[in-house]
Amino acid sequence: MKTIQKMYEHLNWANQRILETLQSIGDENQDVFRLFSHILLAEKVWITRLQGLDSSRLPIWSDVDIEVCTELVIQNEESLTTFLTNLANTDLDKLISYTNSKGKEFKNSVRDVLTHIALHGQYHRGQINSRLRAEGIEPVNIDFITFVR
């Protein structure tokens, strides 16, 4: 549980750093904003699934502005913090059932879903950094080791 908790502290830190960078550059690069909003919307979908609620109508790709991203960063951090605070080690292997956006049903452990959320966001934050560099903007250092230092 300590490792998962640390992964989520890093996730929240990395999201905040990306958000601050995007706020400072304006909305010139819509592709970057679309990727960041995808991270946040996907987090919301997975949080909803972890809570045992229907996520089938929630978007995972949408053109949203920086204000919506800011709200999602705050909401997702609060929801994930609450979820993790109430989660016991024994709950990590509990299976959750959910239906994806295409209507297909799946079951995965809470542990696997939490791992997926953290890795999914890091993958797309890497894409964001690649696009920032291509635009001549300094990439955001979101390395885990930087976080733990």
From TrEMBL:
It comes from the Bacteria. Keywords: Metal-binding. A divalent metal cation binds at H38, H120, H124. Gene3D superfamilies: dinb family like domain. GO terms for molecular function: metal ion binding. InterPro entries: DinB, DinB/YfiT-like. The keyword Cytoplasm does not apply. Belongs to the DinB family. This is Damage-inducible protein DinB. The lineage of its organism: Bacteria, Bacillati, Bacillota, Bacilli, Bacillales.
